[in-house]
Amino acid sequence: MQNERVAHILDRIADYMEMDDDFFRVKAYRRAANTVQNLSEDIETINEEGRLQELPGIGKHIAAKIEEILETGTSLYFEKLKKEYPVDFDALLSVEGVGPKTIKLLYKELGVETLDDLEHHARRHHIRRIKGMGDKKEKQILENIDLARKNTGRKLLGHILPLAESIKHQLEVLKVVKTVEIAGSIRRRKETVGDIDLLVISDNSQEVMDYFVNLPLVEEVIVKGPLKSTVILKEGLDCDVRVFEEDVFGAALMYFTGSKELNVELRKMAIAQNMKLSEYGLFQGEEMVAASTETEIFQAMGLDYIPPELRETHEAVEAAVSHKLPDLIGYNDIKGDLHIHSNWSDGKNTLEDMVWECQELGYEYLAIADHCGYLHVTRSMDEKDIKNQSTEIDRLNEKMENITILKGLEVNIGPDGNPDVDNTLLQEMDLVVAGIHSGERKDFFEMTQIMVNAMENENVNIISHPTNRRMPERPEYDLNLDKIFEAASETNTFLEINSNPVRLDLKDVYVKKAIQYNCKLVINSDAHSQNQLHNMHLGIATARRGWAEKEDIINSLDLKDLLKVLNR
């Protein structure tokens, strides 16, 4: 997790620089932060091998900052900037419409340092009085504070899951440890999580606790007990470790996986059957009926096994009773990734690098869908670039074995709903991905019609990140999803479940609703680097939480059948 820490500090330094319009250095620090964020290697290893300045966008000056962060955990320059502007950047930036320059203005004019300060001045109409703000900006800020508060204290699954897995692996090396499992909302694969829960089987809980509280990732020990310890990690997250005996581990795992609502439903069901369910087992009177595995507990209660991703509401219990749980899409069922970027547009790696990585992942096919058209911010390809890339794809298809590269494009959906690329060019592609990439927010009816118009274009196969949210700073578009799903079904347009940790769009509840409309979906990584290709499991988890089966996901098909559904 040092990569995350270094990237975060570099990005925050860029925020401070943006306050003072130091755009050249802002760009340099942003690029360096992005490079570190997307590394597939440990930044500490790269530093130890003296390779920092070989990384894109990292020169002598920023390399020295990185070395300092790795050695001390921070940067003196960063600490100096924090003293100059003692504001809660994370909280304030979580409010849509508030950027570094606005934070500086609000701090200088009103002394705003926290989210509470911001809300206080917005409600008292102090913000509108500041030159350059106005009542419209004040109203927008106030409306977005509630959304920001909902996200405060919770972290993105994609950012915390690697940390939880790292702690799990560190515990597993102990000889006294037999099993370690991640529980809680992480095991249920919720898109945001509040803490980390780990359950351990061991006959020597004291050694486990001594080891756990002294891990390098631990910032502060809150409680250390013989069977449970709680710490605050350096990433600012609580982490609990509990030790259980093997014969009750299934019951403990079920209980601490949750959700709370599902646990309540299961306890009610047990009582109705003259039994009692707790974290120590399923009992009838004093006799233990089941406890060692989750499966045997579910079976003893007359239920089918409920996958962790579905353990949110009583609906899953009802389906388990009536044997109507879906046969969820599996984590190994995806045959290819249909939304990948290379350095032909805004990707970090070459087309060939991305293909090799997909081959390592065992994919049967992939689609390169670089940006094209007028979206200049993403270094979009022009017609000449598209033709040259097509030639390179032909060359690679002749060279590569056991994998097929499809020719795709990601086009921007314009204000009228039409792609900003000529249709004759789109017709030459194997597939076309279309998405809205503007932060502009139109009203409910206009935005819905734009999306419907895009799906009615016969050359558009996939709508990327359909609600265009970016957690936590940008909420989803206000759309008539019933109309969107109807149009997708009628036009045979596939809606994407984007696996980027900040998107996971469509989100789980919308996945379920789309399936009810007989929409077909596609799970893509939207990868802009090789390591981002490995985010696919997050999209699969979102699909599973949305009750999606293999038949609902088009890239679970083999290539021959995929080309049929693409009408190519």
Task: Give a written overview of the molecule.
- Helices cover 44% and strands 15% of the residues.
- With 568 residues, it is of the alpha/beta class.
- It has 4 domains: 2-151, Orthogonal Bundle (DNA polymerase, domain 1), CATH 1.10.150.110; 155-244, Beta Polymerase, domain 2 (2-Layer Sandwich); 249-321, DNA polymerase, thumb domain (Beta Polymerase, domain 3), CATH 3.30.210; 336-565, Alpha-Beta Barrel (TIM Barrel).
- The strands form 4 sheets. Strands 11-12-13-14-15-16-17 form a 7-stranded parallel beta sheet, with helices on one face. The chain has a 5-stranded mixed beta sheet with strand order 2-4-7-6-5, sandwiched between helices.
- The longest helix is centred in the first third of the chain and has 18 residues, at 2-19.
- 43% of the residues are buried.
Quick rundown:
With 568 residues, this protein is α/β, with parallel strands linked by helices. Helices cover 44% and strands 15% of the residues. The model has no long low-confidence stretch (mean pLDDT 93).
Contiguous uncertain segments of 5+ residues? none
State the domain count.
4
C-alpha geometry:
globular
User: What structural category arises from helix and sheet content?
Assistant: alpha/beta
Averaged pLDDT:
93
Question: How many helix segments?
Answer: 24
Give the spatial strand order of the biggest sheet.
Answer: 11-12-13-14-15-16-17
User: Mind telling me the C-alpha Rg?
Assistant: 25 Å
Assess the beta-strand content as a share of residues.
Answer: 15-25%
The description of the largest β-sheet is: 7 strands, parallel
Question: Would you state the CATH class of the largest domain?
Answer: Alpha Beta
CATH architecture grouping of the largest domain: Alpha-Beta Barrel
Distance between the termini: 43 Å
Number of strands: 17
| CATH fold title of the largest domain | TIM Barrel
Question: CATH H-level name of the largest domain... which superfamily?
Answer: Metal-dependent hydrolases
The proportion of residues forming helix, as a percent range, comes to 40-55%
